[in-house]
Amino acid sequence: MNKITVYERADFEGLSREFTCDVPDLHELDFGDCIASLKVVGQPWIAYTQPKYEGEPHVFEEGEYEAVERPNSFSALRLVHHDLLDPQITLYERPHLQGACKVVSEETNLAYGYFNDRVASHVVQRGVWLLYQHPNRGGWHCLAWPGERVDDYGAQLRFQARLSHLRPLRPGRPAVTAQLLWDQKRVEAEREVLVDEIVGVNETESEQALAAGSTREYSTTLWQSFRFSNATSLRAGLSFTVTVEAGNVFTVQKGRSESCTRRERSEVALPAKVPPRTQLTVHVLRKEVTLSVPVLLTITQNEAVRTEMGEYRSVSGTNVCARFSMKPLPAAGTGREERTEAVEGTEQARSAGMGRVAADGTEPGDDVSAEREPTGC
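User: That's the sequence. What structure does it adopt?
Assistant: Structure tokens below.
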């Protein structure tokens, strides 16, 4: 929403009024010539020193102004509803758009170039511009509106061919909503990472408890990033949120590091007992999945709606499991190893709602034939 809130005292104190549309005469609303501070949301506003949008204009772009430059002097307010995203103005050296010309699309200090104090006419293609008589936004200034054509600065403006600085008004920040298109997701890579290895040997003739304990905790990770399309119109500093899932709201800020890492604790249950004359080997594994999902961005600005595309990318290592195998030891006194069958199994992690059942449906500690492939995480 585009709105301005005005206060009768500095630091946003005293009586206040909120407006969302033009106010040609503040005196009719009992708030004339008393504004000392204000807040702007959305598009810029122009405050005039005389009713009916007359007198000296003062521009206030989105932000908070604890103290205005000309307190107690504003009599009218006007909302800038024009499209400000792609500004352009053409300056001419002579009246009636004649002579050398210069096309400007961003704030420019003409004192640094060859066109300083040489402008006699202009035409505005897009955006709203502030024109200053002196460099660094100094001196007398005026507004130039879209489609405006000034044929002679000497007759129509007080510049007398002395334009030295100009800048376009900045648009208000757009509201952005992000929708992940899960039906178009792509799994780019999958891999298993060894987190820990535990070996227990029972050389006795009776069952023994595993010295490492029956459970352990491990850190799991989630790396997230967001990439904008090359044609994005969003500017640096804009931020919005992407809701990936319940409990995972990823904040994106344009122009800064667009990634974050989240760590969690995951508990893995291990076999608690080692059978007689058996070696138990436990490999704790983290399965990492690289995933990319297209994101539809809906951008609302100045009552206009447009869409752009982005991409959410994550490397998730939140699935931790324990893969174990049991190998009988050689019979006592034989002096040589005998061929034995290994017993393998997999124990799945219990992690913040991320737990899954082993691929073959086995429960922790189930015996599995040695000829079978190890079960996955």
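Residues 153-156 form the longest helix (4 residues).
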